[in-house]
Write a structure and sequence with these properties.
The complex is a heterodimer of chains A (282) and B (293).
Chain A (H helix, E strand, L loop, with lengths): L5 H28 L4 H5 L11 H11 L9 H32 L5 H10 L9 H10 L6 H5 L6 H12 L3 H9 L4 H12 L1 H16 L3 H6 L8 H8 L9 H21 L1 H12 L1
Helix pairs in contact in A: 1-14, 3-14, 4-8, 4-11, 11-15, 13-14, 14-15
Chain B lengths: L11 H27 L2 E3 L6 E3 L3 H8 L1 H34 L4 H9 L6 H11 L6 H8 L10 H29 L3 H9 L4 H31 L1 H6 L12 H11 L3 H29 L3
Antiparallel strand pairs in B: 1-2
The chains are: A mainly alpha (282), B mainly alpha (293).
Chain lengths: 282, 293
């Protein structure tokens, strides 16, 4: 702080409190709606005080979904989402750390060509190749499978770049010492590179967990069976039509359940999250 | 940049690269190649016969008024999302950078929407803006606004812009905060000693030093609005009413999956690919200059 400005301090706090309220308001409304009965939610205006249906609404969606829209149990969808959110980061970290190790620590023919091949994937997001990717998945028999949900999403140029960038900062002396001591490349990888990469891996894990959990278009394309739905898709399936027809209290309970795991990860691992976010995009 | 010390092996590097390259080829290159191939073909409605038609799909596409309208919609949508989320995030970051007490609490509350899926964010906002029961609709009615985004195109656009911007604010906020914290305190102090007040210091020092971050966020946010907001559109307006919110990505999906126009959808994919390549090139040119490693 450079000088005391009581008025400006007051304005700062006022703006931040206002901003925080606006940012948090949708969450509050969703939570309140998830504790009320349908009649209470349908009132104009709905009450902004919690109702007494919390246990009932959450039990209903977890075990049986909604009554008018999708009847798939949200508990199963949460399991599917969790599988996606764990397999994608683990897979991504594994294949990218290996490929960037090869690119940084070896000289071999076509090295630059391979590096560019990985780089180009940045320019081909799922969204621009919807139809052909769907056809490839169906040819390979991967529709409605966990492999289909996760495999295509674990190739990523950003993770490879991040590891490459980090490996460039590892002092050459370490590799030299390892070589003099007679350690082979994989020994060096396990004993030196991997332990040093822990923070980068943690940061990537947080970002990719959220990415995996929040996938929408991909599961929408390749899942058609209810037991393969992820929770984000499940919410969409509960919305059946005009707003009077929807069971908003159940949709909001599902929305809260869908937000909880990634929000907990962001809040508990805030430090890694910020590091991951700033570094993966830099 | 190259490592001075490297290992030697005739096969190991290829083995290490194999998993990533296999996935890249099967799920990225092959479909992308097919998108280009399909875009030159015309399929009948049942997918029984195909005909090679050169650039007919592209010509038909550019002759279609809907396609141009979709371009316009996408431009309005992505600039609105970027402008709204950047300006709110900047305001909040400048304030958060000033305060000492409660800084962590504010930061925690302001970043959590990053964790919310686009489709979920859209459902939350569409619930509050629901034409007959929404709580914000109630307030708007009280103010004399006839709110019904299900029927009115501009209101539907406003809804998807708000939902998408809300989700992007935390991202921009964190980048601005990091940018603000990297401004040397000595610069600010020197200006203060010379008698510059907070407003003057903000415009003459902070704004110019933040302009690279702002430009970077503008590009990132436009890419976000182009692609990652698919969930927002699909969970609320589905491109309607009367295609008022049909952004390019949604049209690719709709034409390909719902209307089964493989050739037309693939041609749109190819055009989108060209746009992404352009945006990525801008992003990387800029990063090459700014970040040294």
């Amino acid at each position: 702080m450079i000088e005391r400005r009581p008025l400006l301090d007051f304005v700062s706090h006022a703006v931040l409190i206002g901003g925080a309220l606006i940012i948090a308001f949708p969450l509050y409304v969703a939570f309140i709606a998830s504790t009320q009965t349908l009649e209470q939610v349908m009132q104009m205006p709905m009450s902004l005080l919690p109702g007494d249906q919390l246990v009932q609404n959450y039990t209903q969606v977890l075990t049986a979904g909604s009554t008018k829209g999708s009847k798939a149990a949200v508990a199963d969808m949460l399991v599917n989402s969790m599988i996606m959110a764990l397999v994608i980061p683990v897979g991504k970290i594994t294949i990218s750390i290996l490929s960037s190790f090869a690119i940084v620590y070896f000289r071999f023919p076509l090295r630059n060509f391979f590096f560019w091949m990985i780089f180009v994937t940045l320019m081909l997001p799922v969204e621009v190749r919807i139809i052909p990717t769907y056809e490839v998945m169906s040819d390979l028999g991967l529709l409605n499978t966990y492999a289909g949900l996760t495999l295509p999403l674990i190739a990523s140029a950003t993770a490879t770049f991040l590891f490459r960038q980090f490996f460039m900062t590892i002092p050459d002396e370490l590799a030299e010492a390892a070589r003099i001591d007679g350690a082979g490349p994989m020994r060096f990888f396990w004993d030196v590179v991997l332990p040093l990469s822990k923070t980068t891996m943690a940061a990537l894990f947080v970002i990719q967990f959220i990415y995996g959990w929040n996938q929408y278009l991909w599961p929408l394309l390749i899942t058609s069976e209810e037991e393969m739905y992820t929770v984000v898709i499940g919410i969409k399936r509960m919305i059946v039509g005009g707003d009077a027809a929807n069971e908003w209290q159940l949709i909001m309970a599902t929305a809260i359940l869908a937000m909880l795991p990634p929000a907990v990860v962001v809040l508990l691992m805030q430090k890694w999250f910020v590091k991951g976010l700033v570094e993966t995009e830099k | 940049m190259e490592k001075r010390v490297t290992f030697r092996s005739a096969w190991l590097p290829y083995a290490l690269l194999a998993p990533q390259l296999a996935i890249t080829v099967v799920f990225f290159f092959w479909p992308a190649f097919q998108a280009v191939w399909f875009s030159f073909q015309l399929q009948d409605a049942f997918g029984l016969s195909t005909q090679f038609v050169w650039f007919d799909n592209f010509i038909a596409l550019f002759g279609e008024r809907n396609y141009w309208a979709s371009f316009r919609t996408t431009a309005i949508f992505s600039f609105s999302v970027a402008a709204l989320s950047i300006s709110i995030a900047l305001l909040l970051a400048v304030m958060a950078d000033r305060v000492v007490r409660g800084a962590l609490v504010y930061k925690t509350i302001l970043i959590w929407p990053y964790a919310v899926a686009a489709a979920v964010a859209a459902v939350l906002w569409s619930f509050m803006f629901a034409p007959s029961i929404g709580i914000i609709t109630y307030v708007l009615k009280g103010l004399g606004v006839d709110w019904n985004w299900v029927l009115k195109g501009d209101q539907a656009m406003l809804l998807v812009v708000i939902a998408s911007a809300w989700k992007q604010i935390p991202h921009n906020f964190l980048f601005f905060l990091a940018g603000l914290q990297s401004i040397p305190k000595s610069l600010i102090e020197a200006a203060a000693i010379d008698g510059a007040g907070p407003a003057r210091r903000f415009w003459s020092i902070v704004v110019p030093l933040l302009s690279p971050v702002t430009f970077f966020l503008l590009v990132v946010d436009i890419v976000y609005a182009f692609f990652e907001t698919f969930g927002v559109i699909d969970a609320t307006t589905q491109g309607g009413p009367a295609q008022a919110t049909q952004i390019l990505v949604y049209k690719v999906y709709y034409d390909g999956m719902k209307a089964a126009d493989i050739g037309g959808s693939s041609a749109q994919s190819v055009i989108l690919m060209i746009i992404v390549i352009g945006l990525t090139a801008i992003q990387f040119r800029y990063i090459e200059r700014k970040v040294h490693y």
